[in-house]
Prior knowledge:
- About 65% of the residues lie in helices and about 0% in strands.
- It has helices spanning about 30-50, 50-60, 70-80, 90-115, 130-145, 145-160, 165-175, 180-185, 185-215, 230-255, 270-280, 290-315.
- It is globular, with a radius of gyration of 24 Å.
- The N and C termini lie far apart (about 70 Å).
Amino acid sequence: FINTKQHTTHYQPTPPLLKHTALTTWPKKKAGWESAFAGGAGAAFARTVIAPLERLRMQMIADPGKYGSMMECMSEIYRQEGVAGYWRGNSINVYRIAPQSAIGFFCKDYYKVKLGDTPLGNNGKPSVLSLAVSSALSGITMMTLTYPLDLVRTRMTTTPDLYTGLLDGCTKIAKEEGLHALFCKGLTAANLFAVPYYGTSFFVLDMMKRNYATYGRTPGNERPVTALQSLPMGAAANMIGCAVAFPFQTAWKRIQVQGFGGRPVRYTGTVQCLSLIIKEEGFFGMFNGLRANLVKLGPTGAIQFWAVDQIKVWMGLSIKG
């Protein structure tokens, strides 16, 4: 008899088809520096692209009533400074916005994770309330830590030849107005703006992404959110945040630039500033320049949040809400 052996071939089990996981799935771990890098790089790119609209926005807020329309303001800038005038102050704006946005995106994710483990969370995940709180806290943190950059940038943009650069601006402010002016002059108004603006824009964006991903889907089967889809979401989030917080931005910027470029010193604080505006210009005086802001912030939000999400995709990160 021929003793035949039964040969058993062992096959590597075929892995099941990978279930498509939406980019909106909440990750257990995430490197904060990666989110910070994406936020800073995306913001720098967006601000450079829309610099002419930023110049228009700043000029309309700083000099209310001086220009009859946005076109008149743009024409006057071109007449006095040429095409380069539209990008005046952009370098220092990038120096400001890159670290500010990096801090903001890092803090937003950091606070969301931390608050997810508190009663504000939802079994370790961010709830609607924790999203709102983390967005507001990130706004305060980024504004406070980068405030000197914003102060110098605002004055350089609205008042030509005031400072030669960031270092010169910080030095002169500290020497002429005191070191505290770099960190405190208008900071209260800035943070009163930061809470509703960044709180609203970050919150609205996250909720839009979350609702888009989960609408009509079963748990664990969310649809992916692409960077391209974040374009209209980012535009809407930025514009809503701007409209909600604009009165505080008006007070903040007027306090920063008073006493420079021929502007009188009239304001002692946020409440007094807003009260005086309402008294002299009416309720809607607090919204002077809002249209120019919305024209600028729509594309800014779209480009910035798209760029941030695209960079995150390149880095292999989630762009969930």
